[in-house]
Amino acid sequence: MRRSDLTICLITDEVSPSLDEGVAFAREEGIGTVDLRVIDGRNVLALSRGELADAAQRVRAAGLSVSCICTPLLKWSPLARPREPRAISSASGSAIERRTMSTPRPS
Fold this sequence. Notes:
Layout (H helix, E strand, L loop, with lengths): L8 E3 L7 H10 L4 E4 L1 E2 L2 E2 L5 H13 L3 E5 L16 E4 L5 E4 L9
Parallel strand pairs: 1-2, 2-5
Antiparallel strand pairs: 3-4, 6-7
């Protein structure tokens, strides 16, 4: 894979819940592409069309582009199969209990 095949993106809310602060950080670091998950403290799925249009304008005004919208759409359990906590390995090798929200079963 050639280096030019890769795009470095910044998930703005990893810097700050404020879109403007995340965008400013990306510009300062020379990162031209961002991924949006939280905009001004709210998940992108909770925003109105007008709020999304405003966010798009702010990103464009900073000279950046959006690589993807990171949504929690696939972070759910089918009603028939509630998620159970499971152990995952951390970078140090110790087990970490992963707590998940269980989905209420229909009555």
